[in-house]
Amino acid sequence: MLGLMARRMAAALPTLAGVVVVTFLLTRALPGDPAAYFAGPAATQQAVEQVRAQLGLDRSLPEQFLGYLRDLARGDLGVSLTTGQPVLSDIASRLPASAELTLLALAFAATLGIALGVLAALRPNGWVDNLCRVVATLGVCLPAFFTGLLLIYVFYYLLGWAPAPLGRLDAFSSPPPGVTGFYLVDSLLAGEFETFASAAGQIVLPALSLGVFAVAPVARITRGSMLAVMGGDFIRAARAHGLPARTVIVTYALRNALLPVVTTLGMVFSFLLGANVLVEKVFAWPGIGSYAVEALIASDYAPVQGFVLAMGVLYVLLNLGIDLLYGVIDPRVEMSA
Known about the structure:
Elements: H1 2-29, H2 34-39, H3 45-55, H4 61-73, H5 87-122, H6 127-141, H7 144-158, H8 183-189, H9 193-230, H10 233-240, H11 245-282, H12 288-297, H13 301-329, H14 331-336
């Protein structure tokens, strides 16, 4: 197990190195002058040059890159010019908000997608199968931010069932004592049930916006995998031995169909990490997605580089977790690895 983890982490190092290089070059290629932005519209050219020297932008590109690598080696992601705080602390404070939203959306998508896929595979061309196709088509066609705007219009503006889309808590609630950074978990640990209700009400619509976007691929892959497994000889043998239908479907069919589903969930999670950038802006969610967008608008290099690097590390850890989960679902995978 430890050897597998070490090999996977070693194989991911070139990927992370490529992320660092590409991100650095792309941020420098973006239009706009950070020195002119932060000097202000009324600043003289001399003032702009002074700001550029303070930011280190007057040095050559190789010198800037070497300085960036030295800072990374010390664990320093730089300082955000828009917030005045170290990028690492900004990301650490905002990452739990994005992670809570993304994980809840993934849980919703996995539950509904797997259920729809299994039911559709049990009765091909039935009404559940047709519903699965409709949901998959809508999930692919509707962008996550459009779904969010639609949900806000219906459930907040028209029906008044949802709270105002203005962050993680309403205006009358205060954050719970920080333990995990997840408001739903921390409020339960502190016994603050009113705060839990407020956090749950605020996260429902953004989680649904992301979750609907992710249901489609999960349902389609589950359906296809279940159809392939249900035609296997071991399924016919299990039925011939008189095993209950629930045991045949859950223990034999679903477990053998889970490997491609788990792979899809890993891909979906990475998609959600990108899609939540727009959803966070729609719902004023204080996550790292909205943080990166604000920094990008201001041509603030350090937060954008820190955001992309954090996403790269999360993606590597996600792939490692999927590899380990393969061994739990099917021990033969771990043995072959």
